[in-house]
Amino acid sequence: MNLLDKVNYWVELAEYDLETAKVMLKNKRLLYVGFMCHQTIEKITKGYFEKYKNTSAPYTHNISRISKETDLYDSFNDEQLDLIDLLDPMNVGTRYPQDKAKLEKSLTEEKCKKILKETEVLLEWIKNKL
Description:
Layout: H1 3-26, H2 30-53, H3 63-68, H4 72-75, H5 78-93, H6 97-106, H7 109-129
Helix pairs in contact: 1-2, 1-7, 2-5, 2-7
């Protein structure tokens, strides 16, 4: 697989996950809105990493860590950094009972709509940098 194919692979996965987040919101599966928004940004960040570094992305789900290994993290504005700080724990938080209950309580439909919109904007912003 050449570099362009690898980057396109990550972009396609990110776009798919964003659409899944929209379906989860429509069906009021709020916990998974957050999870899929995390997946969206994780995957587009991995695509950016692979293009920037011309090597495979690290095996981590930590968006901050992935983006810090490129010039991406330093180019995020405060709102984008806040979104990443919000999304990073949503990957692990959906997997463990003690974290899941706490996370579920923090997510309202309005909050999930905001997260989804910000995720969509950040996805497009990173795609434009590709």
